[in-house]
């Protein structure tokens, strides 16, 4: 089979300056086959943008699903992270979390919507993240339900601070979430210690279901690595883009 057509794609790289973060951030933007500025497209915003594109191969997955499986074309925005500051920006108790949240919702999002043909309603936006990227994506929905309602979480780092936040919520019926966790993630080493991510995700699942979130929760053999997540991205995309009731 000739896979060359899956690699003929348009990925635009942008640099935007964030006044809140006081630094530039890189964006990489996948424009689907047949992209036209006169149309409008659903959009996925990925934390750890470089990793989602390079290790998750999300643009290749998307191209294949659009060309071969008739999936509605969509735009992907990868938001790169400053790795030394990643935990402080993505963790809800991090020193730079509030600045990152403001950048994402009030600087990055308007920039993309002013310059690309993406749809601007919560129902047409998806947030995606791995590990702490899943954490910050969930918290963005909790903080800005008027902007975001959909999350793809790949082995989210749902530590006690996130669990406490969920306990404060009474109704999360607006939240639509795809959760993946590996059954071999019982001792994940992080810069904050070693955690049982499997147990943390199971607790988070219970908290979300008790609050009526629309949840697709799945456990599969796998470790806390892109080698595991990469192959699961098509299923996550299909959950939202093949299931009309998720919109």
Automatic annotation (TrEMBL):
Pfam families: Esterase. The keyword NADP does not apply. Keywords: Hydrolase. GO terms for molecular function: hydrolase activity. The keyword Hydrolase applies. It comes from the Bacteria. PANTHER family: ENTEROCHELIN ESTERASE-RELATED, IRON(III) ENTEROBACTIN ESTERASE. This is Alpha/beta hydrolase. The lineage of its organism: Bacteria, Bacillati, Bacillota, Bacilli, Bacillales.
């Amino acid at each position: 089979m000739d896979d060359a057509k899956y690699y003929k794609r348009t990925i635009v790289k942008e640099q935007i300056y964030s006044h809140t973060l006081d630094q530039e951030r890189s964006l990489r933007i996948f424009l689907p086959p047949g992209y036209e500025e006169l149309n409008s497209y659903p959009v996925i915003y990925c934390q750890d943008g470089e990793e989602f594109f390079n290790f998750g191969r999300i643009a290749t997955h998307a191209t294949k699903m659009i060309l071969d499986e008739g999936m509605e074309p969509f735009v992907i925005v990868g938001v790169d992270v400053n790795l030394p500051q990643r935990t402080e920006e993505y963790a809800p108790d991090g020193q730079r979390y509030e600045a990152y949240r403001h950048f994402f919702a009030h600087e990055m999002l308007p920039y993309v919507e002013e310059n690309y043909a993406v749809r601007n309603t919560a129902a047409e936006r998806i947030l995606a993240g791995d590990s702490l990227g899943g954490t910050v994506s969930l918290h963005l929905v909790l903080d800005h339900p008027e902007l975001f309602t959909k999350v793809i979480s790949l082995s989210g780092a749902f530590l006690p601070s996130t669990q406490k936040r969920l306990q404060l919520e009474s109704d999360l019926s607006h939240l639509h979430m795809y959760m993946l966790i590996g059954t071999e993630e019982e001792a994940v080493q992080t810069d904050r210690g070693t955690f049982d991510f499997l147990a943390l995700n199971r607790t988070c699942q219970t908290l979300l279901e008790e609050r009526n979130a629309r949840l697709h929760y799945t456990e599969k053999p796998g470790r806390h690595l892109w080698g595991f997540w990469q192959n699961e991205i098509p299923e996550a995309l299909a959950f939202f883009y093949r299931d009309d009731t998720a919109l």
